[in-house]
């Protein structure tokens, strides 16, 4: 028994939830490996609904203070889904954040790639030993069933090594990505004019809407009134927060912009992302869910942005692709994502996203019997 287990034995607490923490370009992924209840439902999307309706207290506990923080991100592993049962996927996952459960997450997929190849605990990943490993290339591949569909992840492992290689990027091939609106003129009604908009006479903003496992509204920094581009200082972030929250409020009800060919649960606006071209590629600032800021270059939005660039004739299928940075990844060389258009299908573009993830720790979380804050809390700054 370690010191924590000894303490727990003396103090009655809820069931322990065990997690492994990682980061991808600075964005956290808290991987729930043990203690999460069994979810009802035949399909992963039904299980996602069950998580939201019956177990949201656990998401809140793990994402919010004092066990998490306002910008925490989570991945709940689901050993059995309808696609693992029929042999189309190796494991399922639900993603969660400050407000609920997303449908795709690139940075967490990159982290999970390493974790799932490294874990040899069959109670966490029952199909681990069935993963295919190519000795010649050193690549292990796994099929991750995310709410948006199956994502194919490739992880390097040196010959003879048991663990993944942290120095080489993990990559994944996403679900078909597509554009639903280009150069859409959005009117900003006077009641919604954001207070700190630099150009107060501006009442119309041009955006693109694209899907990369989740729907993104893409708007350039300049279009939003920031000619100096994406910056990460506190004042500029507060201004971008206000501008993107306003745009989301206006765009969210426009359901016709978020049509998915087969799945109504995927039809909503997840994020407004501010983008900017740079000499080396693109940078961006992603506000997702309840205005959470992604520290990573946002893998699912890289899928959406590559699909958009193909549509615009700026990237070619089979071409070199583009480097994507965030305000955090740009601080360290080689910390961003690369996005490449691999194939064009009738349903959309298959995009390959590459990035690196690292372990940061592991924890066991409990709620003591008399703890008055089992769901944690958030401190919201006035907007
Ligand atoms: O990389 C991504 O796709 C995610 N990161 C946080 C927000 C997105 O879901």
TrEMBL record:
Enzyme class, broadest EC rank: lyase
InterPro entries: Pro_racemase_fam
Reaction(s) the record says it catalyses: trans-3-hydroxy-L-proline = 1-pyrroline-2-carboxylate + H2O
Top-rank taxon, per record: Eukaryota
Transmembrane segments: none
Name of the protein this chain belongs to: trans-L-3-hydroxyproline dehydratase
Pfam families named among the record's database cross-references: Pro_racemase
Family, as annotated: Belongs to the proline racemase family.
């Amino acid at each position: 028994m370690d010191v924590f287990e000894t303490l727990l034995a003396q103090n009655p607490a809820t069931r322990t939830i065990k997690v492994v923490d990682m980061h991808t370009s600075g964005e956290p992924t808290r991987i729930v490996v043990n203690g999460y209840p069994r979810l009802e439902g035949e399909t992963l999307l039904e299980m996602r609904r069950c998580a939201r309706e019956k177990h949201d207290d656990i998401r809140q506990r793990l994402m919010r203070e004092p066990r998490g923080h306002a910008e925490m991100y989570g991945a709940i592993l689901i050993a059995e889904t309808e696609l693992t049962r029929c042999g189309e996927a190796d494991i399922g996952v639900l993603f969660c954040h400050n407000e609920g459960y997303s449908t795709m997450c690139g940075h967490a997929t990159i982290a999970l790639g390493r974790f799932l190849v490294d874990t040899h605990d069959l109670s966490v990943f029952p199909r681990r030993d069935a993963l295919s490993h190519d000795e010649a290339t050193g690549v292990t591949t796994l099929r991750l069933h995310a709410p948006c569909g199956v994502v194919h992840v490739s992880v390097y492992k040196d010959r003879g090594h048991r663990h993944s290689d942290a120095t080489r990027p993990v990559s994944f091939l996403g679900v078909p990505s597509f554009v639903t609106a280009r150069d859409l003129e959005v009117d900003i009604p006077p009641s919604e004019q954001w207070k700190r908009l630099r150009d107060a006479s501006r009442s119309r903003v041009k955006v693109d809407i694209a899907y990369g496992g989740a729907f993104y509204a893409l708007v350039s920094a300049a279009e939003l009134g920031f000619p100096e581009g994406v910056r990460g200082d506190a004042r500029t972030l507060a201004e971008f927060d206000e501008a993107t929250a306003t745009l989301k409020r206006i765009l969210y009800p426009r359901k016709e912009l978020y049509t998915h060919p087969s799945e109504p649960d995927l039809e909503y606006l997840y994020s407004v992302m501010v983008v900017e071209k740079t000499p080396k590629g693109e940078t961006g600032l992603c506000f997702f869910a309840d205005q959470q800021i992604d520290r990573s270059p946002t893998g699912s939005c890289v899928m959406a942005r590559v699909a958009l660039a193909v549509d615009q004739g700026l990237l070619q299928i089979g071409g070199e692709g583009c480097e994507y940075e965030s305000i955090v990844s740009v601080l360290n060389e080689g910390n961003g994502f690369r996005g490449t258009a691999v194939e064009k299908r009738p349903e959309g573009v298959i995009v390959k996203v590459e990035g690196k993830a690292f372990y940061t720790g592991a924890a066991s979380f409990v709620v003591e019997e008399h703890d008055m804050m089992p769901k944690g809390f958030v401190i919201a700054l006035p907007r």
